[in-house]
Amino acid sequence: MNRTMNRKRALLPCVIALALAGLTACTNNQQGAAPKGKVSIIPMPVSVQETPDSFLLDKQTVLVATTPEDKQSAGLFNAWLKELTGYELTVAEQGDKNAIVLHTGTDSSKHAEGYTLKVGKDRIDINGNDGSGTFYGIQTLIQLLPVEKGSTLWIPGADINDYPRFPYRGLHLDVGRHFFSADFVKKYIDLLAMHKMNTFHWHLTEDQGWRIEIKKYPRLQEVASKRKESMVGHYNDQKFDGKPYGGYYTQEEIKDVVAYATARHVTVIPEIEMPGHSLAALTAYPYLGCTGGPYEVGTKWGVFDDIYCAGNDSTFLFLQDVLDEVMALFPSKYIHIGGDEAPKTRWEKCPKCQKRMKDEGLKDVHALQSYFIQRMEKYLNSKGRRIIGWDEILEGGLAPDATVMSWRGEEGGIAAAKQKHDVIMTPGNYCYFDHYQSKGKNEPVAIGGYTPVSEVYSYEPIPAGLSKEEASYIKGAQANVWSEYMPNAEHVEYMVYPRATAMAEVLWSPAEKRNYDDFVERLKQHLHRLDMKKVNYAKHVFEIRGEVDSTASGVSVKLDSKLDGGKIFYTTDGSAPSPKGTAYTNPIVIDKAETIRALVFLDDKPYGNEYTQPFVFHKALAKKVTLAQPPNGNYNPGSPFALVNGIEGVKEYNDNQWFGYSGNNMEATVDLDSVQDIHSVGVNILNAKGPGIYPPKQVTFLVSDDGQHFKEVYKQTTFAKEGINQVRAPLQQVKGRYVKLVAQNTGTIPAGAEGAGSKAWLFVDEIIIN
Ligand code: ACM
Ligand code: ZN
């Protein structure tokens, strides 16, 4: 997959020099015509000026560092060098010839975490604004080294000025659904730091397992850290493995991980979930729940009704005790207290919770959740800490000092910023690395969703429409790694890299410097660095990507692969693509119902997953669509075009085609450009009650000549099929220019049904008119 690297020419001068010098090591004196290495850095720095002089690093080069922090950074450089060459450099307090000189506190740009890096002929200077800046300068220097072992270490001359765009650059890991060793967590942190990310969000407690040792509550270790069995396959299959599962981190391990992170300028933010996702803790201490149990540590994924009782003061005392031990282990300013996905079913019925509401004058259970979070916030504030919570903490009123993590789309982040609260953006469409990264048939099972590297890379953390002042509350973003479908460390790496590499650039680099094609070119080099770290990264970035566009007469499909030397072949007759078939040259115009199958070949060998996309052909293709209101959260394909692009959403809803409305109705009007005979109207409706996607109360189609006066031509009220319901209505003698679809959301999910009490999702895709 990789081109021959440009480092090769660096070999020659040194080989000659070795011969001449009788096998002594190369030194800077033999530079002569110094070779020019290529600068290929991820994340892209603010400014890079390449200069003519190169620096030759050899065994005599000295690393100069004076502060303990800089000596630590120097040690990390040596660790990389040793892996690459087998030797380390001497770390000294002085030196200016054949030296790499670290200084902290002298970055002329004065940006927090910023640095300058100058590579001259016989000296390299890294000036960090602070210890983190110097550390990031070292990370950049590492990326200026060749990637092939055995290369002569010519470092290309450069003048770099760099600092981050956002102060919060995060990566999360759920160790509740699956447990990962402390050693793996350290590797995860090391990789994060290598990408100039600075926050590790450690999701430590879940329904399916409590993973942090709390000395005052031994049953958290004995009971809550274990479950009877785990799900296998997808949640929808409801299959179990029958094998006990468990694990937790001792406090000693946690201290070790935190120290390891600190050395890499990474803050570890622990998350202790409340009031929901707490079934494991309730199992260990049933008095913490509303019903008193008995409970069982979760074996299914999903959301559970049993949560901490908000009427019981013992709940708060327990959580305060837990947080006391947590704060002693984690020096972070922020403690994450969860707050997401807490059904209020038990609180509605619990006498203690009802009494609390009455005593405190709380008007509903959402206000009770707000009371819960605010009470915990007060405690943490009294200890000098601040809280972060998932965006549900907005419901019922935000705690005064809370930072909001916006995960159900951007709306929570927008609302919090408008209320002048700090925000971390983690919208699912871009930031959930448990989503699929390819639509290939051979992908390992994932939760759903579709978030390829290109989509991560396209993410803009500042939501559109915020004022400059409101935007200043957006502190950064984070990718979340929920581990239901990641049973082991290798699988975590497969899901996280290279998507985290793309996220790192989103968070660090200036927005105007972002360029996907250029990123992929740099990534080719960068993957060698991930190889050195033995990372099991995914390679989908080189697969075919298809982009559907509107044309004057309908839609066309542009295919692209970033694989060097790769050639794309495709078919439209259902047969498998082959290098003997039709080579792709120009966008493929869709002029009938057909399936495009395409594959990239390297030297006639297929590479990666096939691109397979069926198209429907109809009168509304690429016609103008007006939506009465936009779809919600993560189920917004971005443009109404997706409703008439010839692609029908699939039942896994991982294709960014479905228009999702949470509690709301959908109304869409298609303009056919002229009054025409209309022989049929149709649309697809998804019925997937498990995840809360309910069919509408009714669907109606209306037709109009002028866009003002509409006449109903079809109505349907049952959509019984599990999965996709194809509404297809033949019409007699109907003419019109405008076709309006109205789908009425079923509203609040009724008692006894999956997701009872929540707003139902309505999923609609592809309006089909003939
Ligand atoms: C979440 O994904 N439940 C925050
Ligand atoms: Zn209760």
From TrEMBL:
Please report which protein family the annotation says this sequence is part of.
Belongs to the glycosyl hydrolase 20 family.
- Domain called F5/8 type C: residue spans: 654-746
Q: Does the keyword Ligase apply?
A: no
Active site at which residues?
Answer: E341 (proton donor)
Has keyword Hydrolase?
yes
What GO MF annotations does this protein's record show?
beta-N-acetylhexosaminidase activity
What's this protein's name?
beta-N-acetylhexosaminidase
What biological-process terms (Gene Ontology) are attached?
carbohydrate metabolic process; glycosaminoglycan metabolic process
Query: SUPFAM superfamilies under this entry?
Result: (Trans)glycosidases, beta-N-acetylhexosaminidase-like domain, Galactose-binding domain-like
Q: Which organism is it from?
A: Chitinophaga rupis
